[in-house]
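testing teh design pipeline on a random one, pls ignore if ur not involved
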């Protein structure tokens, strides 16, 4: 039963990643078809991000009332409905409206599932589960590419919507597995909703939130601006730059798979420090004006970033207690979305006024802030 439920959770993590890369893959077609500016994608992604932040902050109270399995299943169903709404949209405002349930569903899944895995499974599975999130983000662009080649962008959203619906049904059927697996643990753990003010008062929480936001800012900047960096620094074609932009994702996905084998031998804190050192080496390499070395640098940044996100999440019950972990992980998810939403546009403004070549310094500053904040948090918590 343990392995069967774990398989269901792996499937849920794939569902979490499936919608994340759809908008970027479809937008070149959508904005031309709807006759809106290219930059309007930012409005849609901002609405989705606001929804994810709000649902992450509310997740602790919702989980206490309805359980993790119910929140996860309903949230996946909500994203399935929202994605179907995207598929039938013909006006830009409709995309914005459907972005609301999309964001609310995605944030609740993220916060609820991450806390459940942190409480009930080892750090090895946390790394591999986030690796499967990467699988989801890789699959979606291929689905959209197929749809664009054979029909229209709406069919790509519709296909992913139906896949999400199927995953929601599988989770619904798996309810007895969740109950059996968590009965004993839930008897020992009474979730304590403490709210934002209560969480911030706990020593170390604010440092973790700032560190997590800084990390996610660096991660999302690497994801979104890698192609532009190659084009601007090495003067390569847009097509080649787009292909090279996937290097970070490849490094991260492979890195999370590898991390699962070694994280059991090290603590979460040691894995975070190791990942930061590897990512730092990659940042140094992308400053070298030789394309093959810079290419290797982005892969190495991805490898280094791989264990950081899952290890920060997995360490939360150890740092702050199992009873309070759901509340704190929900706030951590909100801080993560805040960092990934705000920091890439900020870099765009800086690069526009200075140069795209400042990217390594930008990444280095945020990675440094992250490790400083997490080291500070370690002084107040039980994580060794």
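output:
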């Amino acid at each position: 039963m343990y392995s069967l439920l774990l398989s269901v959770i792996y499937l849920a993590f794939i569902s979490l990643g499936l919608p994340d890369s759809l908008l970027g893959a479809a937008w070149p077609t959508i904005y031309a078809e709807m006759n809106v500016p290219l930059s309007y994608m930012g409005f849609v992604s901002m609405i989705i991000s606001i929804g994810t932040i709000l649902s992450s902050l509310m997740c602790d109270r919702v989980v206490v009332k309805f359980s993790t399995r119910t929140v996860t299943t309903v949230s996946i169903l909500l994203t399935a409905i929202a994605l179907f709404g995207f598929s039938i949209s013909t006006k830009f405002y409709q995309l914005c409206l459907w972005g609301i349930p999309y964001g609310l569903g995605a944030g609740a899944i993220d916060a609820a599932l991450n806390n459940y895995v942190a409480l009930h499974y080892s750090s090895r599975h946390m790394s591999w589960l986030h690796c499967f999130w990467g699988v989801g983000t890789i699959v979606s662009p291929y689905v959209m590419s197929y749809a664009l080649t054979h029909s229209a962008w709406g069919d790509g959203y519709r296909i992913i919507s139906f896949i999400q619906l199927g995953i929601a049904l599988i989770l619904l059927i798996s309810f007895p597995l969740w109950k059996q697996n968590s009965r004993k643990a839930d008897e020992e753990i009474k979730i304590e909703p403490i709210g934002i003010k209560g969480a911030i008062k706990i020593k170390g929480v604010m440092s973790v939130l700032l560190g997590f936001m800084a990390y996610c800012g660096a991660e999302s900047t690497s994801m979104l601006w890698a192609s532009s960096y190659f084009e601007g620094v090495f003067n390569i074609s847009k097509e080649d730059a787009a292909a090279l932009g996937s290097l970070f994702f490849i490094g991260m996905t492979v890195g999370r798979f590898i991390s699962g084998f070694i994280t059991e031998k090290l603590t979460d804190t040691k894995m975070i420090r190791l990942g930061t050192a590897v990512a730092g080496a990659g940042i140094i390499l992308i400053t070298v004006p030789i394309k093959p070395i810079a290419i290797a640098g982005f892969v190495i940044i991805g490898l280094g970033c791989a264990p950081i996100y899952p290890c920060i999440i997995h360490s939360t019950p150890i740092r702050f207690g199992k009873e309070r972990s759901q509340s704190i992980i929900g706030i951590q998810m909100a801080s993560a979305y805040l960092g990934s939403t705000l920091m890439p546009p900020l870099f765009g403004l800086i690069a526009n006024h200075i140069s795209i070549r400042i990217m390594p310094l930008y990444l280095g500053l945020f990675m440094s802030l992250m490790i400083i904040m997490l080291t500070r948090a370690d002084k107040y918590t039980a994580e060794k």
